Amino acid sequence: MPTYEYKCNSCSNRFEVLQKIIDNPLRKCPKCGNKIKRLIGSGSGIIFKGSGFYATDYRSESYKKREKEEIGKNTGKGQKKKEDSKSDIHKSLKNCCDSSGND
After folding, report:
1. Closest CA relative to residue 4, chosen from 21, 13, 12
2. pLDDT at residue 61 above 90?
3. 3-class secondary-structure state, position 26
4. Do the Cβ atoms of 40 and 73 come closer than 8 Å?
5. Range 1-24 average pLDDT
6. Secondary structure of 33-95 in HEC code, one letter for each residue
7. Gap between the Cα atoms of 27 and 19, Å rounded
8. How many Cα atoms sit within 13 Å of 63 on the Cβ side?
9. Chain centroid to CA 30: how far?
10. Rounded to an integer, what is the distance from CA 13 to the centroid of its chain?
11. What pLDDT shows up at residue 83?
């Protein structure tokens, strides 16, 4: 529930009230009983804590360890695949060139 700030038009009394959004604004000052006006508030402030604000900043140590292991596994596999595909291309080209030279 939001907190609304009010100010009395007569006695300048300022006060805050915790109300639902669907509630009607208050009309009378609790101090003198005269008309009051609901003020436009700045809302609640945002509080940032910590060294950074990335999803990785709040990961557990076990998660970070598993992530490093997965990256290591994937990197190793990726390099082997590249090397294998390069050697396959070289073999194909060699076979192609050799067979065309014999004709």
Report:
1. 21
2. no
3. coil
4. no
5. 91
6. CCEEEEECCCCCCCCCCCCCCCHHHHCCHHHHHHHHHHHHHHHHHHHHHHHHHHHHHHHHHHH
7. 14
8. 6
9. 43
10. 41
11. 53
